[in-house]
Design goal:
Blueprint lengths: L11 H8 L3 H8 L7 H13 L6 H8 L4 E6 L5 H16 L3 E6 L4 H13 L4 E4 L6 H10 L3 E4 L10 E4 L1 H14 L5 E5 L6 H15 L7 E5 L3 H13 L4 E4 L2 H13 L9 E5 L13 E4 L2 H16 L8 E4 L2 E3 L20
Parallel strand pairs: 1-2, 1-3, 3-4, 4-5, 5-11, 6-7, 6-8, 8-9, 9-10
Antiparallel strand pairs: 10-12
Helix pairs in contact: 1-2, 2-3, 5-12, 6-7, 8-9, 10-11
Amino acid sequence: MPKADKSRRCTLQDIADRTGYTVNTVSRALKNKSDISAATREYIRQAADEMGYIRNQMASSLRSGQTRTLGVIIGGMSNPYYGVMTDAIQDVAAESGYSLLIFCSRDDPELEFQVVETAISRQVDGILLFPCRGSGRTIERMKAAGVPYVLMARHFDSPDDDWVVCGEEEGAYLATKHLIDAGHTRLGFLSSFDVVGSSEWRTHGFLRALEEHGLPKENGLLARRSGDEEIRDQLNAWRRDGVTGAFVFCDMEAWLAVSVLQQQSLSIPGDMAIIGFDNIQGILPIPAPICSVGYDIPAMARSGIDLLRRRIHREDMPPQHITFRPYVVCRGSCGAEVHIPCIRSGIPT
């Protein structure tokens, strides 16, 4: 039997020549069509595997008008939040028969625009976009190209966009309330980045919790700092000012704050109580337990994919705005003597 030519890809004709069946029979067997006998299907599939055959998805796409590929635009792989979310999206996409093209925008609107242009040029069927501040041009480009899209985790005030998010303001409120319930009355809200939507809503939730618990507004201090040195100086300044608990914008930044404190031989929660946001520790076994605001990330991923598929199939419906309810997971970094029980609900609204 002649050896396969490794210098080129195996084709349906090659399999037909080897097995003695027509190209049409080979094609239908590889698609598991019932009009081809089971024995013939198995014989042809075995020959295809031995010859290294891989289906030409591009040719199939030209016939169907769809590539079965989705673009996912995230901020960056170094943030564990995006790793966890992308894993969840991949699981749901695979169930639905879609492949992913994943791009990183670095939260830079110019780079975001470029990678969306690349995704569109690769003929993706739709895009899940984790937008950054200044994404308006990118969104207009997707609209002009007629590419279905869903905004994930963040959104703008435009009512015309589909989005799937968590309750940012409520989550920040719950995080701040958690620290107050643990006995802290002078608090700080620390963030490193100006994140579209999230920064404003989490600030609102932080301040609302203070107000509703009878604490003066000046008992809640706000700071935006990045890098070990700036964060260390800010936390030390807060400690001198009587701050005993800090709500940190996200888990990644909360772990950085914990590391900075520990480098100074300070303890958590003894010298500073900490709570983060995203509950990454509920999925990744990171050995630095912190209280955190959680929400159902796998369900968010499923909602995003399902909504995008409905848009891809041109289902007629008004813009969809799906918000998942947050909850607090207590792991003791709040300083409470006993872990504070929290109501957990991921039901979207």
